[in-house]
Amino acid sequence: MGEVFTGSFTQQEPLPEASIAAAEAVLRHGRLHRYNTAEGEIAETALLEEEFAARTGAAFCLAVASGGYALGCALRACGVTPGDTVLTNAFTLAPVPGAIAGVGAVPVLVGVTDALVIDLEDLAAKLDRARVLLLSHMRGHICDMDRLMDLCDAAGVTVIEDCAHTMGAAWNGRPTGRWGLMGCFSTQTYKHVNSGEGGLLISDDAEAMARAVLLSGSYMLYGRHRAAPPPEAFAELRYAVPNISGRMDNLRAAILRPQLRALTRQAGRWNDRYRKVAEGLADVPGLVVPARPAAEQFVASSIQFLLPDRSETEVAAVVAGCAARGVELKWFGAAEPVGFTSDYGSWRYAPQDRLPATDRVLAGLLDMRLPLTFSLDDCALIARIIRAVVTEVLTPARGAA
Ligand SMILES: *Cc1c(COP(=O)(O)O)cnc(C)c1O
């Protein structure tokens, strides 16, 4: 059968020693709740917010319980109410349409291109159908943000960015999350920093962020934040905005702060792995690794490739052949949702017309995680296995009719 890979696609690196030490300090003093501070103490959560705001250049930052919570909180903070429509990507993961449904709003899906970014033509055609776009930088692919913002600004559509896969990434030098009114990040185990669960929300907009802080469950303790708008921004809102608790705690924040300091280095290591696999997959007949524009400063914690215009049987055979050799591929075009993949048709709470161009892309779209526990040799081996399987499946057997 040839070479086999035996590593785990779901094993992240252990947390850095500095995170372990910081966690131990919090466990020893016991003040895990973000507003439980000793005299003169600044909570880890408040420090994390301050540091993430500084890192991204945002005026304000709020740490919350999950990336999904950050999305829902941002939608509410931007004034989305039940029954509203919200534009979002057809190619994304379930927490995105789920966050829209969670506030009682209705997703309107926008197609994907074969570069795996939101289809700006389809978006332009649908901009009159909603006041808000929840833009997902799905799998780290960033669209032409200059053009997207021009389109949305001209139509008066507010942009919220889902940066679950783009922490540390930028378009034309401007970090993701800094283009729209709010940017939402996840610190869940499979993202670019790991606190098990967690989320971060950034914005320059004082009113939206004051709403988000109150929504997250700040009670009247918002004065203890260090990356929040000034007290005046809360003066009226504190009576009007409901508390929908979703705070981050000091243990998670303590674990995250050292990881943020290492993010640039880790991003480089992810991209080394991505390039190794992409290099190994170059020129495989029938397989396309989407080209990435120079303006996109990506952080590739996963890789995607396309088998354009292949039958379901062929794509399924590639997935099965790779699995038999230890290489786990996710197939976004599979008819039934499996693991974390899901076709937009499986979100039946938000029925949509089919998007034929998107269906064509998703039908041949395969996806693979690149945890940092993989060595560069592992990446080269994985690419050789994919190359061998794809070649075997897509090359008609000699002598076949
Ligand atoms: C993980 C993820 C989220 C939500 O993050 P959680 O922290 O798991 O709630 C949102 N969008 C995308 C694209 C994701 O992959």
Report on this model:
Helix 1 packs antiparallel against helix 9 (250-261), helix 3 packs across helix 7 (206-215) and helix 10 (263-281) runs parallel beside helix 13. This protein has two domains: 17-261, Type I PLP-dependent aspartate aminotransferase-like (Major domain) (Aspartate Aminotransferase, domain 2, 3-Layer(aba) Sandwich), CATH 3.40.640.10; 263-400, Aspartate Aminotransferase, domain 1. It is α/β, with parallel strands linked by helices and 401 residues long. The longest helix is centred in the C-terminal third of the chain and has 19 residues, at 263-281. Helix 6 (145-155) links the parallel strand 4 and strand 5. Strands 1-9-8-5-4-2-3 form a seven-stranded mixed β-sheet, with helices on both faces. The radius of gyration is 22 Å and the shape is globular. The chain has helices spanning 17-29, 44-56, 67-77, 95-102, 120-126, 145-155, 206-215, 237-240, 250-261, 263-281, 312-324, 356-363, 376-394, and strands at residues 60-64, 85-89, 106-110, 132-136, 158-162, 170-171, 174-175, 182-186, 199-203, 296-297, 302-306, 330-331, 365-369. Helices cover 37% and strands 13% of the residues. Pyridoxal-5'-phosphate (PLP) binds at residues 66-68, 92-93, 95-96, 136, 138, 162, 164-165, 186, 188, 199. Residues 66-68, 92-93, 95-96, 136, 138, 162, 164-165, 186, 188, 199 line the site of pyridoxal-5'-phosphate.
